[in-house]
Design brief:
The complex is a heterodimer.
Chain A: H1 3-17, E1 21-26, H2 44-52, E2 53-56, H3 60-72, E3 76-80, H4 91-97, H5 101-104, E4 114-119, H6 133-137, E5 143-145, H7 150-162, E6 167-172, E7 207-210, E8 215-219, H8 221-234, E9 241-245, E10 248-250, H9 254-264, E11 267-274, H10 279-290, E12 300-304, H11 313-319, H12 323-335
Parallel strand pairs in A: 1-2, 1-3, 3-4, 4-6, 5-6, 8-9, 8-11, 11-12
Antiparallel strand pairs in A: 5-10, 7-9
Chain B: H1 7-10, H2 19-44, H3 59-66, E1 74-76, H4 82-88, H5 92-99, H6 133-147, E2 153-158, H7 165-176, E3 181-187, E4 190-191, E5 194-195, H8 196-199, H9 205-209, E6 216-220, H10 224-239, E7 245-250, H11 268-275, H12 279-289, H13 295-318
Parallel strand pairs in B: 1-2, 2-3, 3-7, 6-7
Antiparallel strand pairs in B: 4-5
Helix pairs in contact in B: 2-3, 2-4, 2-12, 2-13, 3-4, 3-10, 5-13, 6-7
The chains are: A alpha/beta, B alpha/beta.
Chain lengths: 336, 337
């Protein structure tokens, strides 16, 4: 099963379980349409109707505000942006409203809201390419999930729907496994069997995707797969990467990372966001402040260079970390 | 300058509701005025922290609109929320405590003046981002229709919100989804210090509002019986699931925009015209002229409001202050308490 299908399955199961769950977004629930930009909600209107699979105009502030209002008063909306870049049109709702309403009410009002947004550079140019997780990670009041496998996509989305707080789910365009007209070139195949029965993946529990003794490498989404590829190549050089998928950035599982660091003593973050002020900087700062004793080498970030993403595939390949750049960084780290 | 003698202010008087309701509206206006005047004194004396955006002069709108609402209905509000909160029923003591940052406040000291609200009374914390509450009101309207048929939302905002994109997006969703929302524009002629005519090319905001595909009208927002009548039509439409309405209520601040603002940007003639049209006095004159109530009956209401407001502020100032660590609570939901 692909990630797109796993997400769709999770939404359908949650909507069957709980009549208050609704979907709200652009180009969803249109018979003959796409099911959102990447097919996740495709066909759901046939079972749940267009009242619950609610299509909106191109109106990000409107749809996000409406999702928040609905969440305040008894519904559990799953809102989606077609591209995470578009979330900035709804910045007031995402920064000033959703994550502050429970707090401003003194804990008397809850906001059980899920927002989904696709990230990643895919040769579409600068405004359809960003990985804006850090903006949300920085804002108190949000939980942030970053599913990288079909199993986690289903389990994390179900956890998000059942959470009584605003949860942001960032999904990667090249990992969806979308087909037909929405198929992506250069996509990574991450199909796996996903249990049909009900299960959740709890927040704040990382997964070690590959054990290794030399470097603790934390990566999400596409970078996770490139890191695994780099790890494969590095075995020939005798370097063993321990690759950790954090699954959620807020809360973040420092325990698993520290446990790994206790063995490796070296920390590398690989992220697709631009380097300056990314979530990786936060993880490194936290470890440096509280667990410096675990580090036997300076931590390292491998990230997209600090520039908007160019449309040219050649330029994009240069700016975004690939397996080679990750492997080179690991060699440098081990040589020091 | 905007013309002073507008046809909306010259209309024949609205019908009076029955005596009980008429006095109810009068009482609500006085409770707002008394509370706001007392808050102003405390604020000027440096006893209330932060800032306040006050409602004196606009009381007829909150009273007239909320006069049609019940506990099961909702309102959304703005940086100027005290009047709305009072009209929707939040006790003055809880509001006063909130102004002093007390844990006894309606938002436990986490909200403050600009984020008054209480789920018990159908008012989520007010949004102090101009127009930010309009799309949220659309979402509440969606909940009402899907989960609580017959409940409605009154969405309060000022003329300043009218040119913000969030207003447009929220109003359009209300219209295309036929949501049970009453969009209440309190047109007090100024977005902070900027006059309406510097921000709009059209003389009436209702002109643009009706282009969303909803009934829109401009009324005298200083006449509580006019507001009550117009809001009645809009609320009825919403309850009957016939969709949203837009109500432009012409009004005027009797106070500054916020804190110690002295309104030095306002035209003196305009000010004189509007300050002579105090909504409380207009209502009192009408009730006496038409023998709905005696002077003595009205005085009981006025004095009762003053005493209640004074007691509320005294309570608020004495109410328990939080420990500093409370600052870190309620970032996430801790369950119903």
């Amino acid at each position: 099963m692909t990630i797109a299908k796993a997400l769709r399955l999770a939404i359908a199961e949650e909507m069957r379980r709980d009549a208050t769950v609704i979907c709200i977004g652009e180009d969803i629930g249109i018979p003959g349409g796409w099911g959102g930009a990447f097919t996740v909600t495709w066909g759901l209107e046939r079972e749940f109707g267009r009242e619950r699979i609610r299509n909106t105009p191109i109106s990000e502030a409107g749809l996000m505000g409406a999702a928040i209002g609905a969440a305040l008063t008894g519904l559990r909306p799953i809102a989606d942006f077609q591209y995470s870049d578009f979330m900035f049109c709804a910045a007031d709702q995402l920064i000033n409203q959703a994550p502050k309403i429970c707090f401003m009410s003194g804990g008397r009002v809850k906001v059980p809201l899920v927002v989904r947004a696709p990230v990643g550079a895919t040769t579409r140019g600068a405004q359809h390419a960003q990985c804006p997780e850090a903006w949300i990670v920085h804002t108190p009041g949000w939980k942030v999930a970053v599913p990288c496998t079909p199993y986690d996509a289903k389990g994390l989305l179900k956890s998000a729907v059942r959470d009584d707080n605003p949860v942001f789910i960032f999904e990667h365009k090249l990992l969806y496994g979308s087909s037909g007209a929405r198929k992506e070139d250069n996509a990574v195949q991450v199909d796996e069997a996903v249990p049909q029965e009900d299960f959740v993946v709890p927040f704040g529990v990382a997964a070690v995707r590959r054990p290794g003794r030399d470097i603790t490498l934390v990566a999400t989404h596409l970078m996770l797969y490139r890191a695994l590829q780099a790890a494969e190549e590095l075995t020939q050089a005798g370097i063993e990467l321990e690759v950790i998928d954090p699954r959620t950035l807020v809360p973040f599982d420092y325990e698993t990372v520290c446990e790994s660091l206790g063995r490796t003593g070296r920390l590398m973050i690989v992220e697709e966001d631009t380097r300056r002020g990314g979530w990786g900087a936060e993880i490194i700062a936290e470890i440096a402040e509280k667990h410096a004793d675990l580090l036997k080498a300076p931590p390292m970030r491998v990230a997209t260079y600090d520039a908007p993403i160019a449309a040219s595939p050649v330029m994009e390949r240069y700016a975004v970390p690939g397996a080679e750049r990750i492997a080179a960084a690991a060699r440098t780290m081990m040589a020091e | 300058m905007f013309p002073l003698n507008q046809p909306e202010l010259e209309r024949s008087p609205a019908p009076l509701p029955d005596k009980e309701k008429a006095l109810d509206l009068y009482r609500t206006m006085w409770r707002i005025r008394a509370f706001e005047d007392r808050v102003y004194q405390y604020f000027e004396a440096g006893r209330i922290p932060g800032t306040v955006h006050q409602y004196q002069g606009q009381e007829a709108i909150a009273a007239g609109v909320c006069g049609h609402l019940q506990r099961r209905d909702y309102i959304t509000s703005t940086h100027r929320p005290h009047g709305h909160a009072i009209a929707k029923g939040i006790p003055l003591e809880e509001m006063a405590a909130e102004l002093f940052g007390s844990v006894a406040g309606c938002c436990r000291g986490h909200g403050g003046s600009m984020h008054m609200g209480s789920p018990e009374y159908g008012m989520p914390p007010a949004s102090a981002i101009v127009a930010g509450g309009v799309p949220i009101a659309a979402g509440i309207g969606l909940s009402c229709r899907m989960r609580k048929p017959g409940s409605v939302v009154a969405c309060f905002f000022g003329d300043g919100a009218f040119n913000n994109g969030a207003f447009h997006e929220g109003a359009n969703l209300c219209a295309i989804w036929d949501l049970p929302v009453v969009l209440v524009c309190e047109n007090n002629f100024y977005g902070a210090s900027t006059h309406l005519t510097l921000a709009n090319k059209i003389p009436r905001l209702a002109q643009r509002a009706c282009s969303y595909g909803m009934p829109a009208e401009t009324v005298d927002g200083n006449d509580v019986f006019v507001v009550y009548e117009a809001a009645g039509r809009a609320v009825e439409r919403a309850r009957a699931n016939e969709g949203p309405s837009f109500l432009e209520c012409l009004t005027y601040r009797r106070c500054g925009h916020s804190r110690r603002d002295r309104n030095q940007y306002r035209d003196k003639q305009e000010e004189q015209f509007w300050l002579a049209r105090d909504p409380l006095e207009l209502a009192r004159d009408r009730l006496l002229r038409e023998n709905v109530a005696t002077r003595a009956e009205l005085e009981v209401i006025e004095q009762g409001a003053a005493a209640e407001a004074q007691a509320a502020l005294e309570h608020g100032e004495r109410a328990a202050q939080p420990d500093g660590e409370e600052a870190l609570r309620h970032v996430f939901w801790e369950g119903s308490q």
